[in-house]
Amino acid sequence: MLIVMRASATEEQTSAVKEYVTSRGFTIDVIETDERTMIGVLQDVTPLRGLPIDSLSGVERVVSITHPFKLASRDFRPVDTVVKSAGLAIGGHGIALIGHVTSIPQDHAYLASVGSALKRLGFSALRVDWDDCMYGGLSDFERRSLTNVREKTGLPILAEVISSEQVELVEAYAAVLLVGAQSMYGSALISRVGQSRKPVVLERGLSATIEEWLLAANSIIAEGNLNVILCEHGIRAFETREILDVNAVPALKQLSHLPVVVDCGQAAPNKQSACGIAKAGIAAGADGLVVDVYDASRTTQQRQQQLSIDDLRELVPVLGKLAAAMGRKLSPI
Amino acid sequence: MLIVMRASATEEQTSAVKEYVTSRGFTIDVIETDERTMIGVLQDVTPLRGLPIDSLSGVERVVSITHPFKLASRDFRPVDTVVKSAGLAIGGHGIALIGHVTSIPQDHAYLASVGSALKRLGFSALRVDWDDCMYGGLSDFERRSLTNVREKTGLPILAEVISSEQVELVEAYAAVLLVGAQSMYGSALISRVGQSRKPVVLERGLSATIEEWLLAANSIIAEGNLNVILCEHGIRAFETREILDVNAVPALKQLSHLPVVVDCGQAAPNKQSACGIAKAGIAAGADGLVVDVYDASRTTQQRQQQLSIDDLRELVPVLGKLAAAMGRKLSPI
Amino acid sequence: MLIVMRASATEEQTSAVKEYVTSRGFTIDVIETDERTMIGVLQDVTPLRGLPIDSLSGVERVVSITHPFKLASRDFRPVDTVVKSAGLAIGGHGIALIGHVTSIPQDHAYLASVGSALKRLGFSALRVDWDDCMYGGLSDFERRSLTNVREKTGLPILAEVISSEQVELVEAYAAVLLVGAQSMYGSALISRVGQSRKPVVLERGLSATIEEWLLAANSIIAEGNLNVILCEHGIRAFETREILDVNAVPALKQLSHLPVVVDCGQAAPNKQSACGIAKAGIAAGADGLVVDVYDASRTTQQRQQQLSIDDLRELVPVLGKLAAAMGRKLSPI
Amino acid sequence: MLIVMRASATEEQTSAVKEYVTSRGFTIDVIETDERTMIGVLQDVTPLRGLPIDSLSGVERVVSITHPFKLASRDFRPVDTVVKSAGLAIGGHGIALIGHVTSIPQDHAYLASVGSALKRLGFSALRVDWDDCMYGGLSDFERRSLTNVREKTGLPILAEVISSEQVELVEAYAAVLLVGAQSMYGSALISRVGQSRKPVVLERGLSATIEEWLLAANSIIAEGNLNVILCEHGIRAFETREILDVNAVPALKQLSHLPVVVDCGQAAPNKQSACGIAKAGIAAGADGLVVDVYDASRTTQQRQQQLSIDDLRELVPVLGKLAAAMGRKLSPI
Hints:
Chain A is α/β, with parallel strands linked by helices. Chain A is 31% helix and 21% strand. In chain A, helix 2 runs parallel beside helix 3 and helix 8 (271-284) packs parallel to helix 9 (309-325).
């Protein structure tokens, strides 16, 4: 349900409408355009039906959203959503670069070293995959690595959650939660991250249609969390690696108000492909990129698609030029 | 087989080696780098084995190519192939825009009108699909349309061939032949276009792996026609439309010396997607784009992904900026 | 177009209607049911429209077929088509076993030896793949092998055609032509086999939908050849081998009147899978099986999915029991 | 780890080895063959390495399993696993028929009525999908329906679990838990059902390879629950419905000791296809079938692939004959 206020509505009238809805237990999304205010209601609105919302002062009309993935649709929110958290903004004019660090060597300074290099290159966040903290919480090593990188760089951390029990644990150290491709259909986890106050990166399931993906996003929003970022990272077809569906970016931009990022690693057999996908992602209109990185001075390459800091020194300027060609820029450092 | 001449080889030595090979019935590809000359032998080289080619004057070494798609591989030809024909060049510094015209209305001036508009926008070729000339040759209307567009624009024509019998017919009016996705596995047609002196655009089969595609390209070259252009236009997966495999572009650039173009229509459900794919294609490194076009002042849109001349007026400048960001430029008008 | 005669129509009336249609250059399919005769017109019937066929004596009504793959559809031919040729019958009560022989060793007696063994096991045809006769006709060795097997067994031969030029050559020795998966979209070849008087096995393209497959079958029939056998042999998905779409059998039986066979080799990684697919094929309702075979006493296994004569001695009795469970039987020896 | 006892080992020796392992906190799988006893250790055996198990009396040798999905592999358990629960046995000589009931009308007697009819037809279990009990437990209506069907038929109930929190709730009324295709990659749920004492039907993920599927089964067994039943029900390819991978049945039978059932609904567009898949499943070697059913006298068909009791009266005898042809029989009533 979308409540469209009159252009002439006063602040008091708008506040009264907000209060009317929130006091009944609903979460709202307030959309301010140049002209008017709109109030979206995130949850199932059946209990609101029959109430005289359209006759409250200042209300122009009440729009009922019939799209199957309604809360994720452009019909529900005509303006682009910008997800903000801990200094990170995804979805606006800037394009966010996110470094993805895996197979972290037993070196307390590693994460801080990679993080500093990435920050200098203009990256705005760090996705960290620990090999073993899935259930038991962070080890001393992991805790210290995170403290180090935070102190040195201040970069917000993205981390994957694979079960609802684990969400609280990960919220303690991550600014952004990530639901991986293999969990996209997992309704318990989807509900749980919907109740979180942290933004959620939602990867597309390996064989999920765009509609199924937006339905999962809708379920997160319906729990009250509008801060969903869609991440295209490849679908299963007949080749040995996943195929990056580059058309998902313009397709989502038409169907949904949510920001879209492209993961450059999953579908890339090697560095050249990772770079090609990164460039194509920006040109297709993505709001951010997730790039597999490693620091060649401190560890060896673990996966073919990982880019070294030196590789990034070559790539990022080209990405900057492509962003400019698209009338955008890489997010500020 | 690749015969690498010494850097110090004289022109006479090189000519003698060429003569040695061609006089035995083989077609050669002469590759001149800054430093030296290399002579590739296109056909099956079994009859050459045992001959003392490596002891001819000026020969440094003879490299036998073991790659399954050898003649299409980078091993065979270390430099990028630039396909040239009738003023068109695909594969060098420039990026070629090719307009694809279908469902041509009964209007003798239509093709010339679209062609003139495209030429002004910097397009370098026109792909024309007649609905009914598959077997019987061109109708008067088609002939006149072609004459008109040729006189007004001089743009080279690309046309599809779907059977070996039809090749001669199409060669009479097209500067470039096109083997469509559904014919990629058709060995008779592949052999036949290999014997043509016209360049060949080879679309990827709907479920062809990159290796199978390069094997088909190899078969064309093995007949003596090195002027092959690979066209990625989407593969079959679980979504209703084909999925453009954007990674095919950097993947092919690593594996092959052949130019690569991206078809922006097959995988695009609508205009926005066609534009997104066009931009992504350039950023991924494509040497050209095929874009479905129509002239809104003379006919109605027949397919959702067709762009009008007005749409192109908005799109082409962005493509130009993206090309510049990639250190390239759109092919000159 | 389907012309339904009255139940009371006389033979003379029926003959007159047939003559009326064929004298105008059309090929007809005469369907005799217990009750009445129906006359199907195979080609594009536009020139017949407007003619007073429905007022000819004995005609009850004229049904226009609107299905996209009309001539291949059940609407066009309500009874099952039985394809008969050289003693082979596919599509009736019996289930035909077809042995597929590849990589034939240089042994004149090999084919006759395999053929004899297969004939004793109840097979009704032999598919022979020569490695090198694609264009140049049969070698002496191939000719002698065929003579031997024909003399010893009388089994009809199936052979693949990959180009329209090759059809005449193959017709000279094969009772049944086969259009392989990679040629299914090849319209020149499809037209050409439609003009043949030999039956055609039409394999499904690797990524062809069932509708596209029936459209190709329709094109063969539209040229006048109703003797089309559909062969499901696996589609491309994300596993390394093709996936046999077993549901294609009941799906085709509902949509089409044409017989359906299952190729047990393409989607089978090994013998156990080939046997499993063979059994499943019969239970799903297939009218025949194509099985990769070799004679272990005269050559070694070339592909994992090939069954030896000994393997078949175990398998065929189980297939016979499954056929009986389905109310059918393996075709008579 | 698999501990193979000597053929001559005494019961005391075997008991001592079992005690040695279980007293260290491990779960074991005791495999009795005609000849000897083998003791499989289900969990990660790192803590057992270095212990002198191979020198305990009666031990012939200790086999370390290196297969990636080791506990699910034939190497680990050379004999077929038969999963038994509440009178149900899946994996032995019999073939189990499981009715799948969805969209249950508001009729307390519905489930009992369907269950009685199915029991008379020889079905051995009932899969029940409630629309709304996912999180909150059973409603009064659901509870009463279950009591009714249990009293009238005694059929064991299968029910889906979609989150680890929900497992305890479902265990209270279901004899067998089911992990659906969309949850196959969900590691929290997989672990949790591994800790259950109820058998688990594990559906294949929509784009899961056979290896990934067996890895998920391995994870369940590694938690101590060997009673895993694999359910093939279709994979995503380019057709609108899923494609049943019939070859998965023989492929799994070679790779794994676990029983395999085929779901006849997911990949079937209608009744004829559901019947075709059911028959093919038995012929391919499946140990059971899951069939969508409804009672036409009490409700209307909700999905095209649902079979009525009358449809089953025709189908089941054919399934019985096919089972006999395979040397098996439908599980006893």
